[in-house]
Automatic annotation (TrEMBL):
This is Glycerol-3-phosphate dehydrogenase [NAD(P)+]. Keywords: Cytoplasm, Lipid biosynthesis, Lipid metabolism, NAD, NADP, Nucleotide-binding, Oxidoreductase, Phospholipid biosynthesis, Phospholipid metabolism. It is found in: Cytoplasm. It comes from Rubellimicrobium roseum. One of its GO terms (biological process) is glycerophospholipid metabolic process. The lineage of its organism: Bacteria, Pseudomonadati, Pseudomonadota, Alphaproteobacteria, Rhodobacterales. Residues 174-309 form the Glycerol-3-phosphate dehydrogenase NAD-dependent C-terminal domain. Sn-glycerol 3-phosphate binds at K102, G130, S132, K185, D238, S248, R249, N250. The gene is gpsA. Substrate binds at K102, R249, N250. NADPH binds at F12, R31, K102, A134, R249, E270.
Length: 325
């Protein structure tokens, strides 16, 4: 049986391990040895309440779990991915590495696949992304995701390996589109949450979601993505889920910004760093990304929701589509 290691014992990594261990040989690895030992004993991850870890799922901090695996799912935040790869290079080199985090590295402006290629040229980068909440996956609720791999043969093999009866995977060779869809939708989700939190209403949120999606396409297509990828699960599908549900950390963070309330500092909000990275990318490329830029200013504390929304409303009137007269 093929051995899969899930590196990263947060909610999403744990959920993937729980879902896959029903039919696959899977190990869940985390860097915090005492926390992993406690999870191994209690069979509960505090970050995924209400879900019991199956007895067949090894929970460990032993690096051998990474070395022994044929495939490693990287359920680590985008901002720490490079450090993780550097720290565990001997165990990870030459393997298929499936990035499950959604973001753009704030230091290098790379997506996860480029980060993997730079750190481990011998590894095969893949991206697993799409509309999903960890609790749904762990409970076996129907979920569909995108698996991106430039190598069609390996992509098909990994698609079959990682799919389950409840977890349906669709395959693409468009790594850039898949990872940018997953990263940029978090930025727009923050904007939508801030809009609702600030009391501006659902009509305004719908406008932000739609215009934000146009920005996602504008940036992603300039960086080499395919438009059909952005219209699929990893773009529009993920955006609809994340920008409308309080199950999304990014949306909840936006709500807290709109309400001027504190947010749990222990909760990773990938969209906050991604907004800053995307705004920098847009500036470098000469792209007009007003929603993204507004979110970057919000998370940096350089503006408030009311001022940001008024600036968007004060922009010159224009045609809806970039190519329109």
């Amino acid at each position: 049986m093929t051995r899969i290691a899930v590196a990263g014992a947060g909610a999403f990594g744990t959920a993937l391990a729980v879902a896959l261990c029903e039919t696959r040989d899977v190990a869940l690895w985390g860097r915090d040895a005492p926390a992993m030992s406690a999870m191994a004993q209690s069979r509960v991850n505090p970050r995924l309440p209400g879900v019991s870890l199956p007895a067949a799922l090894p929970v460990t901090a032993d690096p051998d779990a990474l070395s022994d695996a044929e495939v490693v799912l990287l359920a680590t935040p985008a901002q720490t991915l490079r450090a993780f790869l550097d720290d565990h290079a001997p165990a990870l080199g030459g393997k298929p590495l499936v990035a499950c985090g959604k973001g753009i590295d704030l230091r290098t402006l790379d997506g996860p696949s480029a980060t993997i290629r730079r750190a481990l040229p011998s590894a095969l980068p893949l991206v697993l992304t799409g509309p999903s909440f960890a609790a749904d996956i762990a409970r076996g609720l129907p979920t569909a995701l995108t698996l991106a791999c430039a190598d069609r043969t390996e992509g098909a093999r990994l698609q079959a390996l990682l799919a389950t009866p409840a977890l349906r995977l669709y395959r693409t060779t468009d790594l850039v589109g898949a990872e940018l869809g997953g990263a940029l939708k978090n930025v727009i989700a923050i904007a939508c949450g801030a809009c609702l939190g600030g009391g501006f209403g659902e009509s305004a949120r719908a406008a932000l979601l739609t215009r934000g999606f146009a920005e996602m396409q504008r940036l992603a297509l300039r960086l080499g993505a395919r438009s059909d990828t952005l219209m699929g699960l990893s773009g529009l599908g993920d955006l609809v889920l994340t920008a409308t549900s309080e199950g999304s950390r990014n949306y909840r963070y936006g709500l807290s910004l709109g309400r001027s309330e504190p947010f749990d500092a222990a909760v990773t909000v990938e969209g906050a760093a991604t907004a800053r990275a995307a705004a920098r990318l847009g500036g470098t490329l000469g792209l007009d990304l007003p929603v993204t830029e507004a979110v970057a200013e919000l998370v940096e504390g350089r503006t408030n929701v009311g001022t940001a929304l008024q600036r968007l409303l004060d922009r010159p009137l224009r045609a809806e589509q970039d190519s329109a007269d």
